Amino acid sequence: MDLLVIVGPTGVGKTQLSIVLAKEFNGEIISGDAMQFYKGMDIGTAKATKTQRDSVKHHLLDILEPNETFTVVDYQKMVREKIDNIKAKNKLPILVGGSGLYIQSIIYNYKFKGNKSKQKDELNNLSLTDLQNQLKKHNPLLYEKIDLENKRRVIRALEKTDDDIQKQVKPYYNDSLVIGLNTERNKLYERINNRVDLMIKNGLLEEVKTLYDKKINSQSVQAIGYKEFYLYFSGEITLEEAIRLVKRNSRRYAKRQLTWFRNKMNVNWFESDFTDFELTIQDVKKFIKKRS
Questions:
Q1: Which among 81, 140, 207, 220 would be 20 to 30 A from 24, CA to CA?
Q2: Cα 60 to the chain's mean position, in Å?
Q3: Residues 6+ apart with CB under 8 A from 173
Q4: Separation CA 166–CA 289 (nearest Å)
Q5: How many Å apart are CA 288 and CA 92, to the nearest integer?
Q6: What DSSP designation does 221 have?
């Protein structure tokens, strides 16, 4: 097997599964969550703990300062190099995460064209309302689909043209396997809500306040769990409202993730049994061994 991929919505157990599989199949883990690249953003992005990282080698965690930018093109180049290096050690590369486009750019033969840095600078200088109006005019289909309150997503949508990405039907890797975790929507949403509460208990507010006090206002802090508390710290909304928005936006993001993975990738789905997650792990192990 060239590559094992684990995908699914936020809060569904991807990290826990990946640790077990890495130990079972002599693997190393590569992050497929765009916001986990940033230093100092640990709790809100649900990074693997120090104990988990000590038990299994992880790649692409904490590689950027919060004010740095990182594109899908950068990611594709870096990850493919990591995969080659891991395979050279006779180990299994395991790509894990929920950032659909990033993961898709690795497993399929995506070719990105053009230098859009100048266009990106111009778009970044526009207000969110101006960006929304441009997108509605030039790409009404995307306008109806994306999160219009997320400036980064609106800019990304405006940058898309037919020549930006060329996808060949044939996957980039000849022998890759994509495992997906999911569960009933009500269970997933309850788990997401509880997860947010736990993040706050574990220090998410303090984590965000550190970034806020450093006046970090780049792409990184537009992530869910950061942008909402920025509004709280700036006095625009109450703490209660910020928490409500984090939970709501996390649930909506999970829904978008599932839509992406179902429509754009060939995924072998497994139900996450949170009453006994070991059963889910065993089912996935059996499937991989049979597939191998």
A1: 81
A2: 12
A3: 2, 3, 83, 107
A4: 33
A5: 12
A6: G
pTM for the predicted model, two decimal places? 0.81
Q: Could you report the per-residue pLDDT of 205-228, keeping only the tens digit for each?
A: 999 999 999 999 988 999 999 999
The CA distance from 172 to 84, in Å, is 13
Cα separation values, 41 from 37, 66, 220, Å: 9, 8, 9
Of 2, 51, 44, nearest to 25 by C-alpha is 2
Answer whether 20's CB lies under 8 Å from 54's CB.
no
Query: Per the structure block, which two tokens stand in for 57?
Result: 């080698």
For residues 70 and 37, what is the distance between their CA atoms, to the nearest angstrom?
9
Q: Which amino acid is at 127?
A: S
Contact 186, 255 (CB under 8 A): no
Over the stretch 177-211, which tens digit does the pLDDT of each residue have?
999 999 999 999 999 999 999 999 999 999 999 99
At 78, the amino acid letter reads M
The pLDDT value given to residue 136: 73
Q: Count how many residues are written for the chain.
A: 292
pLDDT of 285 over the 70 cut: yes
Q: Which two tokens stand for residue 101?
A: 């486009």
* E strands present in the chain: 3-7, 27-31, 58-59, 92-96, 108-112, 165-171, 176-182, 268-271
Residue-wise pLDDT for 116-160, tens only, equals 544 666 788 888 888 888 877 666 556 666 788 888 888 877 776
Cα 288 to Cα 130: distance, rounded to the nearest angstrom: 48
What is the average pLDDT score of the chain?
A: 89
